[in-house]
Amino acid sequence: MTIEVACVPVLSDNYVWLVHDTASGDTVVIDPAVAEPVLEAAQARGWRISQIWNTHWHRDHTGGNAEIKAATGCIISGPKGETGKIDTIDRAIGEGDTVKIGAYRANVWDVPAHTAGHIAYHISASDMIFVGDTLFAMGCGRLFEGTAEQMFTNMQRFAALDGATQVYCAHEYTLSNGRFAQAVEPNNAAIAQRMEEVQALRDAGKPTVPTTIALERATNPFMRATSADELARLRTAKDSF
Ligand code: ZN
Ligand code: FE
């Protein structure tokens, strides 16, 4: 039993994740910003899309919902706090709910802050979590509809996961986040080393995600913040960095 994940880069810096269970053939699209490249990527692998899982209502995470559903008949799960903003949701879910891909179960977490109803999907048996725009490599999402307190709670919760957990974020923001992280922690050797690796990946046109919880614990100033106040100061500074 294995889950395979494929990255579909779309728009300027979005990543759509195709998640495929080899045993059942079940294939989930996480946050389809658009439809066509996602349908093509699935077809190229011989994967039949059976579900969409949305993390939040922003168009760059839901814009492909209707077209992918029309093409595949897939079932769309999304945050119950945002059904008014995502009119394509079949199954509204939140904290404590589970969704399945094949025999794997994803636990749904409420992670409000970037948007009020933002959710994440944790597949613990496969050590992976899909975090949308909440946690980024060396960064966190902007606080559009929530507070620093909420984001601090989210970061602490992510940090408590197994260090090996693969973190699938929805954007390639790593270089810009890393420059800020270096400015905040100029003596952090783990950040300096990571920046060299990240630069090399980007120079080669490769994604820098997924990341891992262990790597974020060592290099992400927002996860390393020891209070909501500290996270608030960091977030404000990053907004104008
Ligand atoms: Zn967003
Ligand atoms: Fe986004």
Describe the protein in words.
- The protein is 34% helix and 27% strand.
- It has helices at 36-45, 59-62, 65-72, 148-159, 174-184, 189-203, 213-219, 221-224, 228-239, and strands at 3-10, 14-21, 27-30, 49-53, 75-79, 91-93, 98-101, 104-110, 119-123, 128-132, 135-136, 139-140, 166-169, 211-212.
- The strands form 3 sheets. It has a 6-stranded mixed sheet. The protein has a 6-stranded mixed sheet with strand order 7-8-9-10-13-14. A two-stranded antiparallel ribbon has the order 11-12.
- The relative contact order is 0.13.
- The structure holds zinc ion (ZN) and fe (iii) ion.
What labels would you give this structure?
alpha/beta; 241 residues; single chain; binds zinc ion; globular; six-stranded mixed sheet; binds fe (iii) ion; Metallo-beta-lactamase, Chain A
